[in-house]
Structures are given as structure tokens and as C-alpha cells.
From TrEMBL:
Entry superkingdom: Eukaryota
Family per similarity comment: Belongs to the TRM112 family.
Protein name: Multifunctional methyltransferase subunit TRM112-like protein
GO biological process assignments: rRNA (guanine-N7)-methylation; tRNA methylation
Description of how the protein assembles with itself and partners: Interacts with TRM9.
GO molecular function: protein heterodimerization activity
CDD domains named in the record: Trm112-like
Higher taxonomy: Eukaryota, Viridiplantae, Streptophyta, Embryophyta, Tracheophyta
Organism (species): Salix purpurea (Purple osier willow)
Coiled-coil intervals, chain numbering: none
Pfam family membership, one: Trm112p
């Protein structure tokens, strides 16, 4: 999981007022080279939560980002290369993301964060939308299958649907 992804994730547990940023507990970190694109970084910069990026980078062992940053720094190629490395080249391969409010850990395996909630943690639990949620997911996945003409039995998408809806 890249820090680019981490910067957008938050805990969606029922009752959590502030589930961002998730704390990173790194067990294995990989570096993967990615082509440098300064224009992409300049466009992305205003959308980043800078403190979350800095804290995430430090959790992965990278301490080259300044505590604070502003748009004037985007003219420096050195600064952009540091941001590029932190956002796109550092990968949390194994570890966990922890909700800052509840302490709930979301595992990260093979670079994929598992943000699925237990039934009693969902924001829809105990409401009418809890009964509607599986059917909405079924329609979404059915639509995806039809639009892409993919056969998905046994795939990750089908497994997720079974896990969420309880239907085969």
C-alpha cells in the first residue's frame, strides 16, 4: 500500500468521529521505483493531508519530508522528488493500520489494506439500511460483471460479495 492510498483512508466504524489518519504499524516496507512526474505531484499537493503524509512516511522509516509544506515549495525539484518517493515509491507490504479513536487494527497483507468492518461495527448496523446494504452490493457487482463481461467465480470480488452478503 502506498502512502498515496493511506492519505485517503479513514476508519468508518460506527460512532467514530475522527478516524483519520490511520496510524501505520509497519512490519515490512518495500521500495518500488516509479517514473517521476512533477506535474502530477503539483496537481495532487493541494489534496494531500500533509501531516498524515509526514507521519506515515516516518512510520515507514522515511524522515526526509519537512514538518510543514506550502505551494511555494512545489518549484523545488528536490522537494518534489522527496514527496514522490514518500507518496509513490514506499510501499507498506505487511503491517496494520490503526484507528486513532478506537484502536481497531486493520491488517495490511501483500500490500492490500483490509478495511472490511465486522457486522456490529458498520455504520448501517441496526438500521433499515443494514438490510438494504447487501442488495446494493449485489446490484453493483452484478452490474460490474455484465459491463466487463468477466467471469468472476472464485475471484476476490466474488469472495468479498459472499463475505458481505452471506450468499453464495
Amino acid at each position: 500500500m502506498r502512502l498515496f492510498t493511506h492519505n485517503m483512508l479513514s476508519s468508518n466504524i460506527k460512532g467514530v468521529a475522527n478516524g483519520f489518519p490511520l496510524r501505520i504499524e509497519a512490519e515490512q516496507v518495500l521500495e518500488k521505483q516509479v517514473d517521476f512526474n512533477p506535474d502530477f505531484l503539483r496537481n495532487l499537493f493541494p489534496k494531500l493531508e500533509w501531516k498524515a503524509l509526514v507521519d506515515g512516511a516516518r512510520a515507514l522509516g522515511y524522515a526526509e519530508l519537512p514538518e510543514a509544506a506550502d505551494s511555494s515549495m512545489l518549484e523545488s525539484e528536490e522537494f518534489l522528488r522527496k514527496v514522490h518517493h514518500a507518496l509513490l515509491e514506499l510501499h507498506l507490504e505487511e503491517g496494520a493500520l490503526t484507528c486513532p479513536e478506537t484502536g481497531r487494527k486493520f491488517p495490511v497483507n501483500k500490500g492490500i489494506p483490509n478495511m472490511l468492518l465486522h457486522e456490529d461495527e458498520g455504520p448501517w448496523f441496526g438500521s433499515r439500511s443494514a438490510q438494504m446494504q447487501p442488495s446494493i452490493l449485489e446490484m453493483t457487482f452484478s452490474s460490474f460483471k455484465q459491463e466487463t463481461s468477466l467471469q468472476l467465480p472464485g475471484s476476490l470480488v466474488s469472495q468479498m460479495l459472499v463475505r458481505i452478503t452471506g450468499k453464495q
